[in-house]
Amino acid sequence: MLLRTLLTACAFVPSPGKFPATGDDTIAGGIFCLSLTDLATYLAKTGNNPGATGTESPKGSAAATSGSGPYPAQTFTDSTLPKHTIYAPKKPPTNVTMPVIAWGNGGCATDPTTHSNFLLEIASHGYVIAADGIAGGKTGASQSMVTDMRASIDWFTKGTGAAKYGNVNTSALATMGHSCGGLESMSTAYHDDRVKRIVMFNIGIFNDEKRYLLQEIKVPVAWFVGGPKDMGYPNVEKDYKLLPAGLPAYKASLDTGHGGTFAATNGGKAAKGAVNYLEWQFRNDETAKAKLLDPKAAGSLVSDNWTVQFKNWT
Ligand SMILES: *[C@@H]1O[C@H](CO)[C@@H](O)[C@H](O)[C@H]1NC(C)=O
Ligand SMILES: *[C@@H]1O[C@H](CO)[C@@H](O)[C@H](O)[C@H]1NC(C)=O
Ligand SMILES: *[C@@H]1O[C@H](CO)[C@@H](O)[C@H](O)[C@H]1NC(C)=O
């Protein structure tokens, strides 16, 4: 018992062929992430500047709206999922079933406010999102863990708490996140077959010695990154190549640096990319699919200045 306690208190130590049962770790972001101390060392070595911006970076923060989709959205606090914020249509839609998303913030922060424009935009297209943290961040922890994102998945799949937001479809469940929250979304999806899609923003695995864990990813992965100035960019290039053979993957890059377009009106081009990806994946929307895959399609991501690569999708 004592040994077990000691072992579970230790951080995950990567070793080829060693696959832990879950993606949990003692550090925020889980087994695919690194500690804040190791991040400082990594940045000093590589010279990456997480604050670098690009030609497509939003200038300042736009005011929040209810999103541009057919189901105007808002934030909710919910006593059945404390320490989280719900983004959902203001009125439960009666004419659609809603895919569900567990979201992790940049820095694994415990306040999702900086991503609100983006999350409201997605919710307004008929999605229920449970985001780590609450406005003000007073959850009792400085960073979110895999257990926090798993609590969102449990809330969607096991309880009845999510039903008041409408007709949720728990067979259409994605983990998504920015930076540390993106790695948290991959760590949470690892060995949890309730998760059907992983969507990561501006981040890939930092540590080369952890990349072998990608062999255990069984669902399609989409990455939205911020061009060569984004510290996530070189790692996403590596991760994309190392997914299991045959697994569909999507990778789009826009010159924003690490910060993405979250602060823009309705979450900017990153939200447009995410909404179209989700509509394609979870609602078989062919127009949305074309925007992602066909550069010549009206409103394609390529026409929005994204550089796009994908595999195992036709
Ligand atoms: C559901 O109703 C809303 C509001 O009336 C409408 O905008 C939306 O297009 C409808 N969705 C579907 C899938 O019919
Ligand atoms: C739920 O989502 C799955 C996966 O996208 C889809 O196949 C199914 O048709 C959806 N169910 C409903 C009732 O919308
Ligand atoms: C693409 O980038 C160019 C150069 O920065 C810019 O002028 C143009 O408006 C961008 N296109 C779109 C659709 O945003």
From TrEMBL:
Q: Identify the InterPro entries for this entry.
A: AB_hydrolase_fold, Chlorophyllase-like
Would the keyword Protein transport turn up in this protein's UniProt record?
A: no
Enumerate the SUPFAM superfamilies for this protein. alpha/beta-Hydrolases (SSF53474)
Parts of the chain that traverse the membrane? none
Q: Which UniProt keywords apply?
A: Signal
Instruction: Name the segments for region: Disordered.
Output: 49-74
Where in the sequence is the signal peptide annotated? 1-17
Q: Pfam families, per this entry?
A: Chlorophyllase
For this entry, the protein name equals Uncharacterized protein
